[in-house]
Design brief:
Order of helices and strands: HHEEHEEHHHEHEEHEEHHEE
Distance between the termini: 59 Å
Number of domains: 3
Structural class: alpha+beta
Helix content: 40-55%
Radius of gyration: 49 Å
């Protein structure tokens, strides 16, 4: 039995059969018991009414036994069309507890104990107790009308049980198919993903656990497709970024080897720049690989944030002055010291400042500042540059992602700066976010635990 739908259907059917069967048995027993109680009460009331009438007419119990002859259950009436008289299932004891109408185990002139009399039904006439009706252990015999009623009740119960089983089977089939439909779709989609068809999306038809599973699969498939596309793009970018310097270096070396060009200091310097570019690219890729593997080692120590920001600013002060950009550092009134890897954090902040310098025009402003907010150190790097389009904001931290595809990387740049910055911040247990508007500037916020 390999079909989950069939297993669920049979499970629903088995549970329904068990519940319906138990309900039918209990209902049948309760109906028979209550109907028997009803018959017994009716016979007792009829018997009590007759003996009270006799006592009121005669003023005593003298001769009452002759008015209620004992009829055995197996006795048959002379006319089979007449209903069979019910057997006497009640005995009568007088005020002293002596049996005056025998029935069942109660014999004539037996004296009954007070404990047994207490279980009987007292007979009262004009406010005086004149006797006690005692129920025997004999079951009442049903007349044909009562028997037919009980038979029809049992038949209706049987039909209801059968109908419940059929409905349970149909509901079981429906529920099993509706529950396994997402699983069948998931199986088909996973096979498609295994074939390389990553763009898979399954409709979410419910909000339960299966719906959450389908939504998680859709998110996984989307992330996998995006990651695959990013990996392909990254591979192409790496090949391009490696290929360009190698082409330059190879071209110069080949020309020098053939004697076409002379090995002048300027040409050697150009090749050195390309080698430096390759070294930066390999270094940055290694940093990212360590971050991906969770093996980025941090040499944490107490670092004063104001001193760190001033150190980073001094490294880029000359470049800012050459471009006519104002680079400032704003520190809080109270010094802030936190445990970080100073060199890694300086690299992360340097990448942000370098990015800001690249996109801020002459006369622009780049500011660095820190503060404490909600128990966290908030470090802000803000510029008044060209800004980033909203469509690109969510991808600026991706590797090799360029909002401007036509932009060539500057010498020594790998295109991995923001990706490395995010990896360093996350390795410290912090987070980084970006806000930007075109033509107004960009604001990077770093939050670290104090």
């Amino acid at each position: 039995m390999k079909s989950l739908s069939l297993k669920l259907t049979l499970a629903f059917l088995l549970v329904s059969l068990t519940v319906a069967g138990l309900a039918a048995v209990f209902t049948w027993q309760a109906t028979a018991r209550e109907f028997e109680t009803f018959v017994v009460d009716r016979i007792r009331d009829d018997f009590t009414e007759k003996v009270i009438t006799y006592y009121q007419e005669h003023g005593s119990w003298q001769g009452v036994a002759q008015q209620f002859p004992l009829r055995l259950p197996q006795s048959q009436p002379n006319n089979p069309n007449q209903p069979r008289p019910a057997p006497i299932t009640f005995a009568l004891a007088d005020l002293k507890g002596k049996i005056i109408i025998p029935a069942g185990e109660y014999r004539p002139r037996d004296v009954i104990s007070t404990d047994i009399l207490a279980e009987g039904t007292l007979i009262e006439v004009d406010g005086a107790i004149i006797g006690t009706v005692l129920q025997t252990g004999n079951a009442p015999e049903l007349n044909p009308v009562e028997q037919r009623y009980l038979d029809r009740t049992n038949q209706a119960l049987l039909w209801a049980t059968g109908a419940a089983m059929i409905i349970a089977l149909l509901l079981g089939i429906f529920l099993a198919r509706s529950m396994t439909r997402p699983l069948r779709e998931l199986t088909s989609a996973t096979r498609a993903v295994a074939r390389g068809e990553l763009e898979q999306e399954i409709p979410v038809r419910s909000q339960d656990e299966l719906g959450e599973l389908v939504a998680s699969f859709n998110q996984m498939a989307s992330d996998l497709a995006q990651a695959t596309q990013s990996r392909r793009q990254m591979t192409a970018d790496i090949a391009h970024d490696l290929g360009s310097p190698l082409t330059v270096i190879g071209g110069y070396l080949e020309a020098m080897e053939e004697g076409v060009l002379e090995a002048t200091p300027e040409r050697i310097h150009t090749m050195h720049i390309e080698v430096t570019h390759l070294q930066h690219l390999v270094r940055d890729l290694r940093i990212l690989s360590l971050a991906d593997a969770g093996q980025m080692l941090l040499n944490r120590k107490q670092v004063e944030m104001g001193a760190l920001l001033r150190r980073v600013a001094s490294s880029y002060q000359l470049a800012a002055e050459q471009k006519g950009i104002k680079l400032s550092v704003k520190t809080g009134d109270a010094p802030l010291s936190i445990q970080i890897d100073e060199e890694r954090m300086a690299q992360a902040l340097g990448n942000l400042v370098s990015n800001a310098l690249r996109y801020t025009p002459k006369g622009g402003i780049i500011s660095m500042q820190y503060s404490v907010f909600s128990g966290q150190a908030l470090i802000v790097v803000e510029d008044t540059g060209a800004g980033i389009a909203e469509v690109d904001l969510s991808r600026v931290f991706e590797r090799f992602y360029r909002a401007d595809e036509t932009r060539n990387l500057d010498a020594g740049e790998s295109g991995l700066g923001l990706a490395i910055t995010r990896s360093i911040i996350e390795a410290h247990g912090g987070e980084i976010s970006v806000e930007s508007k075109l033509g107004e500037g960009t604001r990077f916020e770093i939050r670290l635990r104090v």
